[in-house]
Amino acid sequence: MKSKNRKGIHELYAETPEQAADLLWGQKGLPASRRGFLSKSALAAMSAAVGGKIVFGDRFPSVLIPAALAQNNEPFQLEGKDGLIVLNDRPVNAETPAHFLDDKITPANRLFVRNNGLPPTAESINPDEWTLEIGGESIGKPTTFTIAELKEKFESHTYQLTIECGGNGRSEFNPPATGNQWTTGAVGCPKWTGVRLRDVLKACDLKDDAIYTGYYGRDTHLSGDPNKNAISRGVPIAKALEDESIIAYAMNDEDIPYLNGYPLRLVTAGWPASTSGKWLKKIVARNVVHDGAKMTGTSYRVPNYPVAPGTDVPEEDMMIIEAMPVKSLVTFPQSGIEHKVSEDFSCRGHAWAGDLSVKEVHVSIDFGATWKKADLEAPVNRLAWQHWSVGGIKFPKTGYYEVWARAVDETGTSQPMILPGWNPKGYLNNACHRIAIQAV
Ligand SMILES: Nc1nc2c(c(=O)[nH]1)N[C@H]1C(S)=C(S)[C@@H](COP(=O)(O)O)O[C@H]1N2
Ligand SMILES: [Mo]
Question: 199 alpha carbon to ligand 1 midpoint, in Å?
Answer without folding.
Answer: 23
